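S1.2 Input.
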Amino acid sequence: MPIPFIFHIIENGPPPWLRDNFWLILKSITSVVFLGLLKVYTSGARCLVEKDMHGKVVIITGGTTGIGAQTTLELAARGAQMVLLTRQPPSDPFLADYIEDVRRQTGNQMVYAEQVNLLSPHSIRKFATRWIDNAPPRRLDLVILCASELTPPGKGLVETKEGVEATWMVNFLANFHLLGILSPAIRAQPFDRDVRIIFTTCSSYIGSPPLETVLDGKKWSAGKAYARSKLALMVFGQSFQKHLDAFKRPDSLPMNARVVFVDPGYSRTPSMRQWLTRGSLWGLALYLLGYLFPWFLLKSPNRGAQSILYASMEPSLGRGPGGKMVKECMEVDFARKDINDDAVGKKLWEDSDKLIEKIEKEQAIQRAKDKKVAEKEAQEQKEAEQAAEIESLVDTIKKGRQKETENQQSSSIKARKKSKKAT
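S1.3 Output.
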């Protein structure tokens, strides 16, 4: 059909409808091509690297939603053993259904969940100490830190029970605590094993205030808090790489664990939706009405996960020094110099250590108080049960005696009646 039409135009010229609407058709075609190319650009790069992940053990936070869920699916489909750190216990019916669904989709039964509340240092410590309390050390090939907390703009400051900002706790302090305890397990991996720790970040770190700036009162905002937490995570990541490199292995070989930073880009994730809608129903309604715009300008979660997959499987990232940055499936430079500042990293590490120690002490004291209260309540309940049991026994004895007395009286009455009849 197109070929005869082209020959017809060559021989007879364009038809009237084409000649009269030429510029309109040209503009329409140009617009469609432009929008198509723009969509291809905003969709992000695709990871072209493939690697057999069978036998690899992966710990991932935030692996049940958004980009983390897509990363879990992709790595599980390649055969990796996935350990998902989730706030809910594995017995939770929704989580159990999710795990079963991942296993069914990927054909990989080595997908598990471990309960870890990233808002609680004690919960993190319980999991991490269980992990490292093995001889020989458990295998660990990949740690992916995808969990993220985001307060919608316009909302107030959210704090944990211990008074720590929730964004700071989940985005930075929880990762600091987790890796600090898992460090022996990471350093104990055999030299021929390619171990990677992937920090997911966001380009918002570029506009973050310096880490020494205290965000309180009017200075605090949801955007600044999120950006500052991501900057702190990146500063810690570089310090953690130096911490690993400084370790002298028993076999005197170089360190085989490497930190990789990944910026997945802006994607249509639950966190992004919460940010765009400002956490309100009206915002959600507007989001749904104008869904074409986020669909067009933002990546899908699957495309957002591509850079994480690249950081997990690209062979070149397993060689040379660690601490590299990946965006759109390629290595890029950092946009801030203070990320590699040793003084900033040292102060952040020391302050975070003190804060974790303080929180854990407060949590230990509170747990001891709760335990005493629970023991006291249990003792009171036990005493109440014993008292009720004794009272019930006494009542039974009284009823028995009363019944016995009644029987005796009844017997004596009958005896008297018989004697009267006999006389």
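S1.4 Remarks. The mean pLDDT is 87.
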